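W.,

You were right to be curious about this one. When I first looked at the sequence I had no strong expectations either way, so I just let the prediction run and decided to look at it fresh. Below is the sequence, 315 residues in total, followed by the output.
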Amino acid sequence: MDTAIREIMMDYERQLSADKREQKKRVRGIYERLPEYKALEDRTADISAKAAILAASGQKEEAAALVKELGRISEEKKKLLADAGVPDGYLSVQYACPDCRDTGYIRGRKCHCLELKLTKHYYAKSGIYDKLLTENFDTFSFDHYKGEDLSNIREIYSAAKRFVETFAESYRNMLFYGSVGCGKSFMSNCIAKALIDEGVAVTYISAIKLFDILSAHLFGRQEANAAEYRMLFNSPLLIVDDLGTEVGSSAVSSELFSLLNERDLASLSTVISTNYSLPELKDKYSDRAFSRLLGNYEIYRFSGDDIRVKKAEVS
């Protein structure tokens, strides 16, 4: 098991234990406050045992009568709690995630809360999440753009906001390209932060790291991380930063095509940023991979001066 998942599953076990301790504490409080409720609980346990014995011995009518009695007691218990002002579900286990009941899985598949925990783990491990705190829609500034560049970035900003707002209902991909320092990575960070805040599991990865994972898996190297590899294919949103900076063989580039194709078939969104122009991308990758980018992605060209250079000059 991947180290990250092992650590997170231990957190789930601790959370579940805490959930059950809190539930038992609430039950004890009700027993002290409403001793008659405790008496009904004890009767329920006794009658349930007797009904089970009767049913096992073939005395179905007698067992049915006891089951009917259990129903009456259940209604009496509900009335006691309601009259005492106890809210519905108060005596049940209160899970942090009701969907998976703090197990991390729903019918063998990762729950959205586990996907989000993994996302935050890998973000924290890479140090990227700290960057999202300063690079997001709230901190985005149009002051670094002028003229046509300003009009262009406003359009891209609106498109990125729509991408986030409609993420749950629509399948879309985005490709950001343009010269260095025009805000491509910043805009990708805006999208990542907004969706993570909404509980969406986002995998944000540099092209260099992406190709390392694809290469390790392709050539069966020991350092291949199966969990990271699966996340590339299964993450609700994959963000690839600086496509083109990686070093890889044609075989690994074909793995990129397979990744994009599988995500497309599964209607899982991808956002890619690159400093390369479209002709340069076409020269670098196979026609299949390039056509996949052009055919299924909204393409936005970033323009303007290098913002990082401007900031350095001001400071």
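Here's what jumped out at me. The chain has two domains: 3-83, 111-314. And, maybe more interesting for your project: The chain has a mean pLDDT of 88.

Coffee later to discuss?

I.
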